[in-house]
Prior knowledge:
With 288 residues, the chain is α/β, with parallel strands linked by helices. The protein has helices at residues 10-21, 33-39, 47-51, 64-71, 77-80, 95-107, 121-125, 137-150, 161-191, 196-207, 210-221, 231-247, 253-267, 279-285, and strands at 2-6, 25-29, 42-43, 56-59, 86-89, 111-114, 117-118, 129-131, 151-154. The protein contains 14 helices and nine strands.
Amino acid sequence: MKIAFIGLGNMGIGMAHNLQRAGHELTVYNRSREKADAFGARVADSPKQAASGADVAITMLADDRAVEDVTFGDHGIAAGLPRGSVHVSSSTISTALSRRLAAVHGGHQQGYVSAPVFGRPDAAEAKRLLVVPAGPADLIERCQPLFDAIGRQTFVIGSEPWQANALKLCGNFMIASMLESFGEAFATLKKAGVEPHTFLDVMSTLFGSPVYANYGKIIADEKFEPAGFALKLGLKDVRLVLQTAEECASPMPIASVVRDRLLSAMAHGQGELDWSSIARMSAKQAGL
Ligand code: NAP
């Protein structure tokens, strides 16, 4: 397929490489052009130019603002993508923006699918992402070869694109809660004289999840740099899950606590560290 790939950040670069390896023809665009020049594919001067002639435009961008900037306006994807082609948005964005994207692309007779992913940059590079798309069934079927190229498994979430964003945000809420829990438990155990790695061995066995094992190790090792997922982006996701909770009139009290913890971490200058550095807040409060 002819693919416009927009956003060669930590996640996008691995995904784009795997699409290329699967034989798809890529045109890439990145706001900071040097990343696009270094990638090794045709480089576009604007999102509109990248999308012109593409079967599918994939975006993997930081946040709502970034997706709005590259999609709307005279130089945006919607202005260039041919009728009948599809915008696949893999960024973790709000359910509200997802609904707006579906409406705007619909107005241009273009398709829209939300396909957020689970997995960190190393999983993106290794084609190990979990892909959670939602949208019209025919479009998801058409895009399945692309999901196969970037991930190890696809779970179709529903027929409304924003449902995939709701699921992704709830998934990140689960991870953020786990990070906070690790931070609290490690702080208490350090004061009790128990080695964090010992606790981690027990918990990894008990919970049997690579997410527990990997994040638990990062926190036990206190290795928060380089950030696989920046804390400022984690705060963005917890804010967004609270917005979704409000839309659905479904309170999420733990998410509110985690949001405040991430906010404290931002105030302590941790925005660019990995979001697992939320654990430092518990350590500080324990006088460690
Ligand atoms: P990242 O490394 O910070 O990359 C962000 C990308 O967005 C870069 O290409 C950046 O361009 C671009 N960008 C930011 N603001 C922009 C704007 N206003 N206009 C145009 N482009 C803009 O982020 P990431 O870790 O790859 O994450 C990307 C998305 O995936 C986020 O929504 C994140 O929540 C989600 N996600 C991340 C992970 C993870 O573990 N990292 C896992 C799953 C999902 P520049 O190069 O010019 O800065």
